[in-house]
Structures are given as C-alpha cells and as structure tokens.
Design a protein that fits this description.
Helix content: 40-55%
Low-confidence stretches: 28-38
Number of helices: 26
Largest sheet: 8 strands, mixed
Length: 778
C-alpha cells in the first residue's frame, strides 16, 4: 500500500502506510516468548524452565545469580535498578561460607533487580549477587501492563538484591562502559561545585540526563506543573545543543577564507554531525534523545546534500530506526509521549495559531507586532504538544495539568538558558574538568529559578487533575478532536461536526453511571483497607484510604489515586476513617490534597500524633468539616442509602479502657440499601465484636469486610452468627507478614456457607439494586 501510494504521488499516505506496517511488524516481533497473564506468571515459568524453584504464595524465589549488566543501570534517588542477563543461577545459601549448590546454566534469562544506591555497576560488568526474584503483582494498578511490557522486552522477573550482596566479578570494557564512567565523573564534578540539593539535581539532569538526585518531591512538582519534560533530556535539549552548535560553527566559518571555496553551512554540518551520537550517548540514550538524534542527523544530512529538511520524513525515519533497534520501544510510555508531542507540533501548531484573531505579521510590520508573534507562537506550540500528549498522559498516568501551558510559557525559556549553560559546561568539562565550575556557578541560580517555577505552578488549583484511564475509542476521539480544533479556520463545518462526534464519544462512557444501584468496591491497596461506595445518585464515599505499614511506599499516588481516577472519582462526599492506623489512614493527607472532600467522619479520638496531626492540619487548611460519630448517632441518609453507626460504643471509643484498644475503637458502619446491608467493621477484634453483639443493634449483612483483615483475634463465632454474611472480603496484601487471613478464620466463614474474596488478587466489586447483592467482574 505504501509503495502504491508513493507511485501515485500521495507522499503522506505512503509514509503513514509504511510506518503502520512497520509498527505492526514490531508488535509481532516483540511478542513475548513467555506470555503475560498466565496463571503461573512469566518468572515462575522461566525459572522452572531452567530447573530452579520459582516464587510461590509464601515467598519470592531466593537465588544467587551471575551474569552481565545489560545496558546502563537506572540510578535513582533511593534505589538503583539494572537489567541482568543471567548466565547461571543456583539456590541461595543462608550464609556466604555455606556449601554452595551447583550452578545451573540459564541462557536467555533476563531479570530486573533493584539495589541500594551504594551499588552502581557499569554496563557490561559481570556481577554475582544474592537476589529475591518475583513476578509483577498484577492485583495492583498497572501491574498487568507492567508485566506485559517487561515480558515483551524479554525480562522474566523483577526483584531486589539482598542487602548489599552483589559484587562485580569482571569489569566491563567497551564504549558504553567508558561513556557511563564519564557521565558519573561529570555528575560528581557538578555536585562538587553546586553542592547537594535541588539545584544540583536539576543541573545534573539537564547536563547529562542524570536524574539520580531528583527527589520524589521534586519530581512530583515538575510533573504537577507540566514541566517534567524539562528534567528529561529530550529533543528540546538536543536540538538546542547540537543545532545551536551548528549555527555557531557555520557563523564562524563564514568569517574565514574557507567561505570563498566551500559552503560554510555544509562544512559546519559535516563537523557537527559526530556531536549527535556523542550527545545522545552522554545523556543516557533514552527514546526521546534517540528520536531527536535521528531527526537532527537527518536535518544535517539534508543540509550536506542540499535538500530541504521535512518534518514528517524525519519523524517517521526516527520511529522506524528506534523500532528496528528494539520493537519493544513501541510500548514504552516515553517513546509514545515523545513521538506524540512531535507529531502534535507538526500537525496542530499552525491550525491552533490560526485560531488567534490576529494575522501573522509581515516583514514590514512594526517591531512590537513582530515581537508579539513570539509569545503567540509559543502558546500555539505548547498547546499543540499538550493536546497531542493528553490522551497518553491520561492512559499512563491518569492525570492532567491545567497549569502546563502558562508554566511552559514562563519556564521553557529559563530551562533553555540553563540547558545551554549546562551543555557548555559539559563540553568544557570533557576537555578540562576544572573549567566547568565558573559556568556551573552561572547556571546554578537559573536552575534554582526553574525549580522554583515548578513549585509555584504545581501549587496552582487544578495543577494535577485526576483523569480516568481512557478506552482506545476515547484516545482516538481525543486525537481526532485536537485535529478538528486545529482545522476550525480552514474547514469550519467539517471541524465542528468532527468535534461534536468526538465529544459524543467522550461523553458516552459517563452516561448510565448513576443507574440507581449501590456499588461497593473494596480496592486493592496492599495490606490495608480502602472501600469505595458509589451511591444510587452517583455521589461517592470512601471508607479508609490504605497506607504502608512501614511508611516506605507512596500508596496514595502509586496505588489508591490511580484506582480512583479509573473510576472517574473527582470528588468524595464523605471520607470516613475507622481508626488511626497506618494501613487505614496513611494515604489520607495525600488524598486530601488530590481530591475535594465534602466531610470527614471519625470517632471522637483526637487527630494527633504521627498519623492524626497531618490529617488535622489538612482539614483545617481546606475547611473540611469533621463529623464525630459513635453508637447512638442518628442514622445518616446519603445518596439514596441509610448509613447506621454501630461503633465505637461512645464518643471517645472507650479510650481509657485498657482492654478496648485502637482496633476495638474502630468506627463501625452498616450501609443499608433497601433489603441489602453492607457491614464495614474496621479492625474490631474480640472485645469490639462482643460490644457490637451486646448492643442489640441489627448486624445482619449480605457483605462484610472481614474485621482486622482476617486475624485470629476477630470474626468470632458469636459475631458471625449475628451477621450471617453471604460474602466476605479479606483486605490483605500479597504475602503479608501476618499470614492474613488466618486459616482458622477462613474455616469459620466457610462453615457458614459464606463466599470468600480477597483484595491481593485485585479489587472486589459488588452492586445492589436494593433487593439483592451481586458480585461484579472486573
């Protein structure tokens, strides 16, 4: 088809057809040998293939491996990650001097392991280490997509190095190792000059693509402000550096005698051509840089050949080159976002600029009018890139930023100035490292200003708007809508019709959401609780918000908020907190910052201490009213259901009774929808359950969230007899250290004929029409 279109003169159709064929071929070629989504999982399957014991329900696989570091390690703020091509493996020993089992050859086995920041292997290093290997947990948000992406890249397992038990047993050679050594030397020189801190982190990121000192908080403010692309070396940086160098060299050559014999621009292009792969390698050779490197190389080659550069040709060639090198790039979000942004600039910028009711200036126009065109063009290009990447941002990150356009207008010139200085410093540092310092001292305040701008725009209202994960038809509608918007001036009737059709496609998933049913979803948040109730009128209530017991993982941003975004939760009418334990309320401060909440429900126990004080500060700052509830509080009508408060026994949750601890002081709610009741008892244990039974309140429920995650101190026979549930959900994490749910508790529920569900395999969803409760499949 591409050849036929080319013969007919349809150049763009030919390019599109060729690119589509190549993409489809890439998908076929990159299909994983171990298919994701099988019951066993790719890691278990791969290790069994080599005669090794894989991960099971109790623990991950513990092995000693020996192999080579595949590519440059990803150096992070608190952990480093590297892909290892494993040559041989054996079961792990308890201690290094224990008798070692025999090695087993493992050809083709590739694993990705995280390690302490002290461990910094080089590309190609032969390493030996003790590791824990596992399958990606598909029950948590993004798990299935991550497993598929890794499998397509040929990576069977993920895992971590035990302690610091990894060592290089053979040093690498070759160009990639030499480049990585150079990058680390330059990074150390930048830190020695600028010191530790956010400014130094920005300088390293702009200069050599080293993001290892970018803290999670700093990364979040750049993402929320729409400026994250400035921290990742991409086409913007390479274009400024390489093409800027080309302009400088050609200008200098025009002032030499060579200009009378050779075209200075051709000579400059020849001289600058080697700088493209050198810059790409020095900054990490990630997909955006490689895309820009191919495009810049084609631009310079066109100048050498005397041909006019053409944007779509360069973009298509870059895509073909990267996919030929590694077809798995197709599924890389960085690859997709980079090419979408460039395609948006080519396809949308002109049309969006034409929407401004101000004609482009002529050469004879006043100077002020010509100057005004620069910000108008910047607005159009920023809007074009934002619209083109919005569907992919929603797909991969479930968020958008209203601050992105104004932030980029202000911050991009600052970022370009810092990038130019950083590139100059690196060029000088490759020759004389000590000469970097004066340039870096000039660049430091500019980098600090860039970080300050990110913090400022990240604080704007609407800077981080949660979005639902769009369907393929919604993604197509958003892109088509952007094209129609850009075509309003050229073809208004067709564009308006197209926009209407796109809006209809985007609006249709929202219709029928409020169908008079009560939907109860026990979300997968690891070892913790988070229950989302969607009432018949469409309003939402969240009971508990999950959190990490050790405070090591950002459950809110990585786990909870993506699930809420996928369910189109833009507001919570009520956030109810059962009690102040980290696995129930650890994510609450972040949640309150991310979503508007109408009211907070708690028991009367004070919001204080490590967990309570941040919540109290947030609700005070945001003006969220707090409703204190206990047994005896009047039932609450909410969204077409009745919410009964069954516990704690009094306002203070029997705080002064030593046998009635925090768990037994949980807020206990019974949600009644017609003939159907849902019981949410928090973490009550034996004493709390006895108090509920003794209260004489109605406890019967079709669905119960298992008290205290299914511990042996809860779900007593007397309590279950009163509740008589048809379904029970155990809110537990995969391989949790407590062994929840306990076997004896599972047996109690099975004895009464109750169906068992657990959240470590994914969210569990039910719907009630007021007459019966049904389990919904994901």
């Amino acid at each position: 088809m591409g050849l036929a279109a080319s013969r007919l003169g349809a150049r763009r159709l030919s390019l599109a057809a060729t690119l589509l064929a190549f993409l489809l071929a890439g998908v076929v070629r990159s299909a994983p040998a171990i298919r994701p989504g099988t019951d066993d999982g790719p890691c278990l399957t791969a290790l069994r293939t080599h005669g090794l014991t894989g991960p099971d329900d109790r623990e991950p696989a513990r092995l000693e491996i020996e192999g080579a570091i595949d590519g440059a390690p990803d150096l992070g703020f608190d952990r480093n990650r590297a892909v290892v091509s494993v040559a041989q493996a054996r079961p792990a020993r308890g201690r290094p001097l224990d008798d070692a089992p025999s090695w087993r050859p493992t050809p083709g086995l590739r694993v990705r392991v995280s390690m302490q920041t002290q461990l910094r292997p080089l590309p190609g290093d032969r390493v030996r280490g003790a590791v824990r290997l596992d399958d990606v947990e598909v029950g948590l948000p993004g798990g299935a997509a991550t497993r598929e992406r890794l499998s397509r890249a040929g990576i069977a397992c993920i895992g971590s190095v035990e302690g610091e038990r990894m060592a290089a047993v053979g040093e690498a050679g070759g160009i990639r190792s030499a480049v990585e050594r150079t990058r680390r030397r330059l990074s150390a020189a930048i830190e020695a000059t600028a010191g530790a801190g956010p400014t130094s982190a920005v300088l390293s990121s702009l200069a050599i693509g080293d993001r290892s000192r970018i803290s999670p908080e700093q990364a979040e403010r750049f993402a929320a402000s729409g400026l994250a692309h400035l921290l990742s070396v991409s086409g913007l940086h390479l274009g400024l550096t390489v093409l800027g160098l080309y302009r400088i060299v050609s200008a200098l050559l025009r002032r030499t005698p060579l200009a009378s014999r050779r075209d200075p621009e051709v000579v400059a292009a020849i001289l600058c051509l080697p700088s493209i792969p050198a810059y790409a390698l020095l900054t990490g050779a990630r997909p955006p840089v490689l895309r820009a490197a191919v495009a810049a190389g084609l631009y310079l080659l066109a100048r050498i050949a005397g041909r006019a550069p053409e944007g779509w040709t360069a973009l298509s060639a870059a895509a073909l080159a990267l996919l030929a090198w590694d077809p798995a790039n197709l599924l890389d979000p960085s690859f997709q976002l980079s090419f979408a942004a460039c395609a948006g600039l080519l396809a949308l910028t002109r049309g969006l600029r034409d929407l401004v009711p101000l004609a482009k200036p002529r050469p004879e126009s006043p100077r002020w009018r010509r100057w005004l065109e620069s910000p108008l063009g910047a607005i159009a290009t920023t809007a074009a890139a934002t619209l083109a990447t919005l569907p992919l941002t929603a797909l991969h990150f479930q968020r958008a930023s209203l601050a992105a356009i104004p932030a980029n207008l202000v911050a991009v010139p600052v970022g370009l100035a810092a990038t130019a200085l950083c590139a100059t410093a690196v060029g000088v540092g490759l020759v004389a490292e000590g000469a970097m310092a004066p340039i870096l001292r000039v660049a430091g305040p500019i980098a600090g200003l860039l970080d300050g701008l990110a913090a400022h725009f990240a604080a704007w209202p609407g800077a981080a708007i949660p979005l639902a994960t769009p369907s393929p038809s919604a993604v197509a509608a958003m892109w088509l809508g952007a094209l129609c918007l850009a075509g309003l001036r050229r073809a208004p009737r067709r564009s308006i019709a197209g926009l209407a059709a796109c809006l209809l496609v985007l609006w249709s998933p929202w219709t029928g959401l409020h169908d008079g049913r009560l939907v109860v979803e026990l979300l997968a948040v690891g070892q913790g609780d988070a229950t989302l109730l969607t009432f018949p009128d469409g309003s939402r209530m969240l009971v508990d918000a999950g959190g990490d017991l050790r405070g090591e993982r950002d459950v809110a941003r990585r786990v909870l908020l993506p699930q809420l975004a996928a369910r189109r939760v833009s507001r919570l009418e009520v956030l109810a907190l059962s009690h102040l334990h980290p696995d129930h309320v650890g994510s609450v401060p972040t949640l309150l910052d991310a979503l508007p909440v109408g009211e907070l429900w708690t028991s009367g126990r004070a919001l204080e201490g490590r967990l309570g004080a941040p919540i109290a500060e947030r609700i005070a700052a945001l003006g969220i009213p707090r409703r204190i509830l206990s047994r005896g509080s009047a039932p609450l009508a909410l969204g077409g259901v009745r919410v009964e408060v069954l516990g704690p026994p009094d306002r203070d949750g029997l705080r002064d009774e030593p046998l009635f601890g925090d768990n037994d002081g949980s807020l206990v709610l019974r949600v009644v929808h017609g003939d159907v009741a849902i019981l949410l008892p928090g973490d009550v244990e034996e004493e709390g359950e006895a108090a509920l039974v003794a209260s004489g309140a109605a406890l019967s429920a079709a669905l119960i969230k298992a008290p205290h995650h299914g511990s042996s101190t809860s779900s007593t026979p007397a309590f279950l007899e009163r509740v008589a549930p048809q379904h029970v959900v155990f809110c537990v994490g995969r391989r949790n250290p407590f062994g929840f749910p306990r076997p004896e508790v599972v047996e109690r529920y099975e004895k009464i004929g109750c169906r068992l569900h657990r959240t470590d395999r994914g969210p569990v969803r039910f719907a009630s029409d007021g007459r019966r409760l049904v389990l919904l499949e994901e």
